Amino acid sequence: MFQLTELESVVRIAPSNFSKPLKKVALETLKVKYESTISPEIGYVVLITDIKVDKVGKVIPGDGATYHRARFNVLTFFPKIQEVVEGEVVEITDFGAFIRTGPADALLHVSQITDDYLTSDVRQGIIQASSTSRVLKIGSKIRVRITAVSLGRGAALGKIGVTCRQPFLGAFEWIEEDVKSAHTSKASKKGKSSA
């Protein structure tokens, strides 16, 4: 889930940046420190917005820089277990597919794709089901449910596990087929009951 979170930090402004606008320098410093990092508390930090910097800073003896308190909003992506997300297949491997779900890639293991027997062709970038002939390929749009989340700290990669072995999950074309099948089944049952 994407969300805006307000954070507070102290920003060091080096003497070489005193002639530049305080807000601009503080934003650049905070972007380097926070953007593209992961926190177990707030998730993946995507973007910093809405920065407010105290104009009066503090000087520490032995350091010519000033330190200013800053409050700012961060756009984060915090994956939650059982959440349904949509993404795109970006890589096919022998053991599954990687799904781009916002700023992170999630692993869709072959055991979590379908009940059917699957074959992977890594060179062609496809996974194909034997009996249904359903195909998952690089570029496929897909809807999945998050089943596992492990977030590190800093720039370490977090891990997200997903499944599409539930009704109305999987590649968008699979979902369309399932919806049509459900409507057809419902219509035929309705026709039999009225006869």
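(the above was protein one; protein two follows)
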Amino acid sequence: MSVDNVPDGHILVGVISGVRGLKGELKIRSFSDVDTRFNVGNILFVNGQKYQIHSLANSSKGIVIRLVGINTREQAESFIGQKLTIQHSEFTLDSGMYFHHQLIGMIVYDLQDDLLGEIVEIIETGSTDVYVIKLEGQSDILIPALSEYIKNIDSLHSKMIINLNDSLNTRI
């Protein structure tokens, strides 16, 4: 799913995939790992407009919510395909954790301070993410997001230091 049209300062947490019933219930495809993300009373944004969650139902087919102010099927149908976001300030990560958008574009160096390239993609494998590091004219380097390899992340200067051992170095 593209993050196009997500307002600045917001994080994509889901998309409205359909409707259920006649009272404005919305089927949600969640992109959130937070179990309480769609609880009653929480705030979500659709196209930058703020909505409060009125009700929540978990069914075998997924999450269904109602938003305050959306009371008919016709109103709900106009929201199909819309992205659900939260404000970035409402979400905190544990120390040492980063959002993908904070890592994409980060410049990567090895322990000897040699430039390796830029993180251009993050591959989600299920067990751990893998960072794709690209340098023009060189083969890509794939680094697992493990402390064994990632030695320092300086988000202020958009710089990462990694331990690039021979088994992972595709450029030798």
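Reviewer note on protein two: The longest strand covers residues 10-20.
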